[in-house]
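*** Protein under study ***
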Amino acid sequence: MSKTIAIACLQQGKAHLVNEDNFYLAGRYAAPGELISARKTCTGTAGLQFFAVGDGMGGKGLGDESVRLALHVLGQHARKQPAAGRFDFSGFAQKYISDANRAVCAHLSNSHEIVAGTTISLLAIDNDTAYTASLGNSRIYLYREGKLHRLTRDHLAPLPEIQKLSRQLGVPGDLILTEDDNLTRTVLARGDILLLATDGLTSRLSDDQIASLLARPAAFVQQIDNMFQLVSRQEGEDDLALVAIKILDPDFVAGVQDYDAAGSRL
């Protein structure tokens, strides 16, 4: 089992009528009445823990509902996982992404002329190992020993004057995950911080700025609160969702072990 502490923050951007970003923490996501601003914390001791962020698009009733559907399906799949035994993340992620995409597509079936859907970035912690999968440009980072490592790559197709997502939920047809969909495996060490964030944060803070904020001498929750407040004070146009997890002990029953560097591919 892995002992963790986690914090999730959410804020609506001033350019939007409704917040189309959301997070998944401790089996929950933000309800419609919590979307203007939300902050939640939790501690975890389960052998298998799930976290996610998503950035919806399409406007009210489309983007916000798309991301909530994706997180709802994640909760359904997470609750079906056995408490013990080998966790097949690749199989889990493939089945989840396929089912979530179908659910989002069904919701968007009458909005053919509107670009809609949601990004999704998923983190699963299985005892002393972290797994990721991601579609879109919401990111997952690992902060370890003063260095920030980006575990995901943005799925963007550069176009004149704009950048368009090249992978997302809400695209008709089967979505088959490959290594390019940010399937990673990381062996955890005590003190690791994992950060999931939509582009409402990463478009306003560079990787160097994120690393600098995490390096400041403060308690973990205060570090994330400071980061969130710094971005919030900028009153950005875009919505923002982030989840941060600190590994207090990657195997607190069996004791702490020494691990090599993280980030190997599945």
User: Anything to note?
Assistant: Confidence is low (pLDDT under 50) at residues 254-266. The first strand starts at residue 3 and ends at 11.
